[in-house]
Amino acid sequence: GRGPLAGPVVAAACVVPDGVEVKGVTDSKKLNEEQREYLFQQITTHPQIQHAVGIVDHKVIDEINILQASMLAMEKAVQALPNAPDFVFVDGNRSPSGLRETSTVETVVKGDAKCFSIAAASIIAKVTRDRLMNGFDEQWPIYGFAKHKGYPTPAHKNLVKQHGPCPIHRMTFSPLKQLFGTEAKAESVIAQTPVKSRTPRRQVKRKETDFEEDGGDSDNDFVP
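-> structure tokens emitted (224 positions)
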């Protein structure tokens, strides 16, 4: 989720052995929500597929910038795998320096449309982040996070202008930066009084690993 104005960036890593496939897996952006949820279940419960996610929150995004936060999420996802991969495919044209120190890394532009394991990882990352944003929607329903998932839709931007930012908004992103400044704190009444708190709910190698970062506009996904 590099483009959203709110919430974390999520990356997924997935290890898929040769010969293992899950029917219907493709670039997560080409699937609707129901299809992604179904395939998420199929992938994450498959006995031969290993997966993990890396999550970097809005505070770190504002501290180190979204590109570096995305790279960090990728590293976290790979590090969380049960077994460290020797080879990693990264979707996009950049790869985390930390991964290059421990594994052979190859970038694959538009990898989620070319590589099964990257596509599987893209689904895991997308569903994980969407579920987190649905949980945040319950805490701060005025912003409509369940609908736009934090992306800068006209409705979302208008609500931020009307109510101010909430605690998960990325204050270094436009138009938040211009409206409130990077040092602004989320002090709106809505932000201070969450309605209902529920804990929100976490890419791929052959004997390689693939990595994918959510979501929607990602150009850098990872597969070990």
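The chain has nine helices and six strands.
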